[in-house]
Design brief:
The chain has about 500 residues and is an alpha+beta fold. It has a domain of about 180 residues: Butyryl-CoA Dehydrogenase, subunit A, domain 3, CATH 1.20.140.10. β13 and β14 form a beta hairpin. The chain has 20 helices and 14 strands. Strands 2-1-10-11-7-6 form a six-stranded mixed β-sheet, with no helix packed on it. A four-stranded mixed β-sheet has the order 5-8-9-12, with helices on one face.
Length: about 500
């Protein structure tokens, strides 16, 4: 995939709506153009002499170069090569893009990993997971996913009322419903099977990057997989320009295209959307699973392993970005040697180090699955940690930045000849270049910790791995406490 090819691939007649208006071309609309061109820039890195072999490898069946995002590692070295590509995507986007192409491509690799299980469930779908992986890899398809249903009833219940209590992915996507069938009036379902495929009607949420992806992977988080009516259970992929598929976007967070006042939101507002299926046809070769609630829950953990790995690498780069910006703010205000400030900076660094060491632990626990894919060890607890610190990192940046984060001049203010002398005196102490640098730094920090974009990022970080309370409960439920409990019980038998 090149940047230009990516841009052209989005000009395909897809039905995208924003603020009551149908968008004819998402690549030129100001709400999307920033992220589109940022994605295109990173895609182009795959073709540079410096990074070609870091980001891609030769296809075993064609002359194409395949993104490492679609690699199926069979040993530790191959897994580390995959990791280096993930690191590069996350570094280039400062950890701000939860739906880089590296994320959902990993889900397709997960589908491939459970291909034998899927083939047993439905012989007529045999081979689809392997064939679909090959198609995506050879064409470097940009993917998103939609795994949640519209939540009319968000009442939470105790663990395991509608899904297996030992499944670590229970609750991913939000609170579990008291009865997951309650929302079936709006949830996506198969209405009929026809020659060549299935027809679906209903809605899916929340599909991040949907208007900017080539295809969407549709499956169910464990929260929603426990359906008593099997027509609501399906795993498939669908091109975003499929007739009858409607994408409804939220209000954009990017502002003032071309301005340096919002450097992160301009580049990395990846959009979140609801998708409505109005009698949409999906061909059999794009269907991976149908009608099996138990399998949809049981296989989810394996499907998401590599995607979770990618997400944790992104988290590492995101918190590193906070450390860098916090340091720059402290130095700009000449408070970097104050003990209380260094305490806060040290807290951020401690988060970075905990994440780094956790990822190294995942690397050390790498193993081959029954599907023959080398995957990292369990990173479920790290997802819980991400939710725990999601708000705290914003708080620290706000505290170090102080009141200056609230009121910084705009780009037009700095360009105004009448205002500029005052601004140079007040902000730059008479230094023209210092004024510009300081304003840009504080505007960037504001975008990272106080803007609408910053709030969206914090909410995303908290929720996209699921309800943290439920996840902690599930983690406790599967943690092996037996050995230590046994040793303590033996201690009770010994004399004082």
């Amino acid at each position: 995939m090149t940047g230009q090819r990516y841009i052209e691939s989005l000009q395909d007649g897809r039905e995208v709506w924003l603020d009551g208006e149908r968008i004819d071309d998402v690549t030129t609309h100001p709400a999307f153009s920033g992220i589109v061109h940022e994605m295109a820039r990173i895609y182009d890195l795959q073709h540079t002499d410096e990074l070609r072999d870091v980001m891609t490898f030769p296809s075993p069946v064609t002359d194409n170069r395949i993104s490492y995002s679609y690699s199926l590692p069979t040993n530790y070295d191959e897994l580390m090569a995959r990791k280096r590509n993930s690191e590069l995507w996350m570094q280039e986007s400062f950890g701000q893009l939860g739906r880089t192409p590296d994320f959902c491509s990993s889900v397709v690799c997960g589908w491939y990993d459970v291909r034998d299980e899927l083939d047993k469930l439905a012989p007529r779908l045999a081979g689809n997971a392997a064939d679909f992986h090959r198609y995506c890899a050879e064409n470097d398809i940009a993917l998103t996913h939609a795994i949640g249903d519209p939540q009319v009833d968000r009442r939470s219940t105790t663990m395991g009322e509608n899904v297996a209590p030992d499944n670590p992915w229970v609750g991913v996507g939000g609170y579990a419903l008291e009865n997951p069938d309650d929302d079936q009036a709006t949830a996506l379902k198969v209405t009929k099977e026809v020659t060549g495929g299935i027809v679906l009607k209903g809605a899916k949420q929340l599909a991040t990057l949907a208007p900017l992806a080539n295809e969407c992977l549709v499956y169910l988080s464990a929260t929603f997989a426990g359906r008593s009516q099997n027509e609501y259970v399906q795993w498939f992929s669908i091109p975003m320009n499929t007739p009858g598929l409607v994408t409804l976007c939220r209000e954009p967070l990017s502002q003032n295209p071309g301005s340096y006042g919002h450097p992160f939101s301009q580049r990395f507002d990846e959009q979140d959307a609801m998708m409505y299926f109005n009698d949409v046809f999906v061909p059999w070769d794009h269907v991976m699973m149908l009608y099996d609630s138990d399998a949809a829950t049981r296989l989810l953990g394996r499907v998401n392993v590599l995607a979770g790995y990618s997400s944790n690498i992104r988290l590492y780069e995101r918190i590193r970005t906070f450390v860098a910006v916090a340091t720059m703010l402290a130095e700009a205000n000449e408070i970097n040697e104050i003990r209380d400030v260094r305490d806060k900076l040290g807290e951020l660094v401690s988060y970075v180090e905990m994440i780094r060491l956790a990822i190294r632990g995942m690397d050390a626990d790498a193993h081959l699955t029954s599907g023959g894919v080398m995957v990292p060890g369990d990173g479920f607890a790290l997802g819980i940690f991400a939710a725990q610190i999601s708000k705290r990192v914003l708080d620290i940046l706000q505290q170090i930045g102080g009141m200056e984060l609230l009121a910084q001049p705009s780009e037009n203010d700095l360009a105004n000849r009448e205002l500029r002398p005052y601004l140079d005196k007040i902000i730059g102490n008479g230094d023209y270049a210092a004024t510009e640098k300081r304003v840009r730094l504080f505007r960037l920090a504001h975008d990272l910790c106080m803007s609408a974009f910053a709030t969206r990022q914090e909410v995303y970080e908290y929720w996209h791995r699921g309800d943290v309370t439920r996840n902690r409960s599930n983690l406790y439920g599967r943690y092996d406490r037996g050995q230590v409990v046994e040793r303590i019980n033996k201690l009770f038998t010994k004399p004082m």
